[in-house]
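A student in our group prepared the protein record below, which I am reviewing. This is what I was given:
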Amino acid sequence: MDEQYKNDHQKFVSGNDGSTFLETCFILTIMPISVLFQRVVFATFFNNDKYPLPLPLRFILEFFFIAVPFISAVTFTELTPFLIFGMLITCLVVPMFAQKNITIYFKNPKETLLNLNSMRKGFLEEYRAFVMLATCICILAVDFQVFPRRLGKTETYGISLMDIGVGSVVLSGALVSRQSRSSLIEKQQKKKREEEEEDNKISSSSSSKQQQQPQVKILSRSSLMWHQVKAQAPLMILGFVRMILTKSVNYQEHVSEYGLHWNFFFTLGFVSISLAFLKFNANVSAILGVILICVYQFVLNNLGLTDYILNHPRDSIISMNKEGICSIVGYLAIHLIGTKIGTELFKVRSTLTEWRKFATKLLISSIVFYILWVLCEIYIDKTSRRMANLGYVLAILSINLFNFSVNILITLITGNHNASVIAKSINRNQLFIFLLGNILTGLINFSMKTIYAPVEESMIVITSYSFGLCLLALILDYKNINIKFW
């Protein structure tokens, strides 16, 4: 990349003060609304078991029903309210054209309850997949002028759509962590043991079989830590590879984002490694997360850490990457609090009414976190993704819990029928899709001067890139391929 264009590009993405909390939340809401729209349309017009919709056609329709509205919302933001209200009205009107024997809403409550209580929850997979898809779309779209500057990452303080990405990925990972699923896993293992014991009682050789059962090996904390370090090695390697590639090709970098060498992969890796030292139950983890972010905010405000992050010269390897290193505390707090939310999520509920109450509880929690965020903005400190401070943690929790509660409500309304194949495909290979999105973003930036591209060309490139990512995810899923880096 030539030096002049690199400098122009850095200026293009720098100095942003952000958008508003409500606009950010409003734009992200289009994803779950699009899912509802897709399910209603499919149930109305393509609900024929004898002649199921061919997978290629289903994929194309899903892309236009789910991905295209989001692309439109983040490029032409003035269309967002019309898209949301238009899809909601369509969901009310379209079922009138359905055949009399077809039920669109509140279909098969027993099946819906079974899905909600299962280990693999459809609404959770959709939520995580679309967080990743939105992130991949935005990391390229932000390089074009068609993407409003206020939605790009903020320089120091403020909140925007791009600021939400990393925190949302960390939170979505916490929701499905083994610690979050531990209660459900234990119940399944207990049930399996009871069934085995029952079989052993019937069998005449029960005593010998019990003696042959292998003992579960309990690892020490140091062993768990070493296991976690090895498990996260691929993320760290990806971080080093990205760093080397960006430096070697003189690729533009927004230094105030993470620092001179740091990147997203290092953050994920170090957060995961840190968790090896913090193996507690969900309640303790949540309390620890709250204490951690409060102490961190105190240090920022009263012990000079804010001044260090914002103003200290980059004269050592630590200070060169001060944003990335210090912000680990905020992301770690998000993960610890997220495990408690995940534990509540994986609780088995006996009726759909209990799930409605849980969705309402999440919605109320989102409002509470929003109120706390407002108070934090007024009395404590402005929101800063750069430092991942208290305001940022509260914003991440509020926005994600709101969208998550909407996802659950949509599942309660429509069941898991006509579930998105795009969501299923992306969820299967999330890390690979994100890595590929980064590589393609870099290649596109090298092949064209994105900041000077006209609107029509920008939209074609962004849409084609998004279509290609979704298509590759679908092919990998169809071929039953899991791409892992360890």
Remarks:
- The two ends are 32 Å apart (CA to CA).
- Confidence is low (pLDDT under 50) at residues 205-218.
- Residues 75 and 147 are 5 Å apart (CA to CA).
- The chain is about 70% helix and 0% strand.
